[in-house]
């Protein structure tokens, strides 16, 4: 049915060329028929362009986040048109008195990092109201996930946040492709981050490393670099670890994560403090590591850990007259 109709339309459209004695009303009808033929195509092109720009700006699921990302491209120091790779920061978190304060400190840094996407994974059976509200108002593009750690794994001496980090890796493998330029970083919520760290890690080709303050039983732990290559580790704790680094001491190119679909954090057979080594062993070699932060001579991240607040005077019964989120 469509074919004969379109043929008749094209016949009509050649009419003015065939007949030199065209009068004005005919021209007009030709103009309108062309106009209505072209109109749907123009609309399709407009829609395609719109979809394409949305895809290249990589709008996260949350509309609010998409808007902040948009504003960020206009920041001074981030000239429009620069296609920098994204930083995907993975933050496992769990409910505790200092949680909101910790997340606030992170947000104050992350909000200022261009092309940034925050993957927050709660150790919880649901995404909590508090964290959902916090993220929605954070001004940081984000994805909010949750996975509950089974009770039997919640003992001292057991590696922590394994399930949460793996959930974030699974999300990346599902929602990002070979065409996405990015760097993946494990940003625990008890650290303090310098903004410089993010520009250091952004150029990571495979796996990059740098020093971390207040870990390994020393003021800092760092990769030892000779001739631009990592040759060992300066640490005060278990120097026999193949990668004697902290979770906050390395970043991985997104394509390495996608290209090693089975690489993940292990619970089985993993000793505490060996999570980083067990993970990095699956994707790289010490000699291939890319030293950042001036050949690993600058500390740009610190394991500050907020002190557990003293709350011995919290009233048991006569509580405050209003309910306040802390
Ligand atoms: C920007 O895009 C161009 C063309 O796709 C690519 O060659 C270049 O490496 C990209 N730059 C960065 C920093 O990703
Ligand atoms: C790191 O060390 C290498 C080899 O000594 C040198 O070529 C390079 O410039 C250094 N990089 C920085 C950022 O200092
Ligand atoms: C590590 O190095 C060994 C020997 O040089 C090589 O066979 C292996 O492929 C490397 N592994 C990775 C993940 O680069």
TrEMBL record:
Keyword Metal-binding attached: yes
Residues binding UDP-alpha-D-glucuronate, per UniProt: 92-94, 123, 160, 165, 188-190, 303-305
CC terms in the record's Gene Ontology section: Golgi membrane
Any one GO MF annotation of this record: galactosylgalactosylxylosylprotein 3-beta-glucuronosyltransferase activity
Chain positions carrying an annotated carbohydrate: 295
Subcellular location: Endomembrane system; Golgi apparatus membrane
Pathway(s) served: Protein modification; protein glycosylation
Pfam name, any one: Glyco_transf_43
PANTHER family cross-referenced by the UniProt entry: GALACTOSYLGALACTOSYLXYLOSYLPROTEIN 3-BETA-GLUCURONOSYLTRANSFERASE 2, GALACTOSYLGALACTOSYLXYLOSYLPROTEIN 3-BETA-GLUCURONOSYLTRANSFERASE BETA-1,3-GLUCURONYLTRANSFERASE
Protein name: Galactosylgalactosylxylosylprotein 3-beta-glucuronosyltransferase
Organism: Gadus morhua
């Amino acid at each position: 049915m469509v074919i004969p109709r379109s043929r008749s339309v094209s016949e009509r459209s050649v009419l003015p060329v065939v007949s030199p004695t065209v009068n004005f009303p005919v021209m007009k009808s030709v103009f309108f028929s062309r106009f209505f033929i072209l109109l749907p195509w123009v609309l399709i092109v407009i829609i395609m362009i719109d979809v394409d720009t949305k895809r290249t700006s990589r709008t996260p699921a949350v509309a609010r986040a998409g808007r902040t990302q948009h504003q960020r491209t206009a920041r001074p120091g981030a000239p429009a048109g620069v296609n920098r790779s994204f930083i995907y920061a993975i933050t496992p978190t769990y409910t505790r008195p200092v949680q909101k304060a910790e997340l606030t400190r992170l947000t104050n840094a992350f909000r200022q990092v261009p092309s940034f996407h925050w993957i927050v994974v709660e150790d919880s059976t649901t995404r909590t109201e508090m964290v959902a509200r916090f993220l929605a108002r954070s001004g940081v593009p984000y994805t909010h996930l949750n996975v509950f750690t089974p009770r039997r794994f919640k003992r001292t001496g057991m590696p922590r946040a394994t399930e949460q980090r793996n959930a974030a890796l699974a999300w990346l493998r599902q929602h990002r492709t070979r065409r996405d330029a990015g760097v993946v970083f494990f940003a625990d919520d008890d650290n303090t981050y310098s903004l410089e760290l993010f520009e250091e890690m952004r150029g990571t080709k495979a796996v990059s490393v740098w020093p971390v303050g207040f870990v390994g039983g020393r003021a800092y732990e760092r990769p030892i670099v000779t001739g631009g290559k990592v040759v060992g580790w300066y640490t005060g704790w278990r120097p026999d670890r193949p990668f004697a680094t902290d979770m906050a001491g390395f970043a991985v190119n997104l394509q390495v994560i996608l290209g090693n679909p089975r690489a993940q954090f292990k619970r089985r057979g993993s000793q505490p403090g060996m999570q980083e080594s067990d993970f990095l062993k699956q994707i790289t070699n010490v000699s291939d590591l890319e030293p950042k932060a001036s050949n690993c001579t600058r500390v740009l991240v610190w394991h500050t850990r907020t002190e557990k607040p003293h709350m011995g005077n919290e009233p048991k019964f006569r509580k405050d007259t209003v309910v306040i989120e802390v």
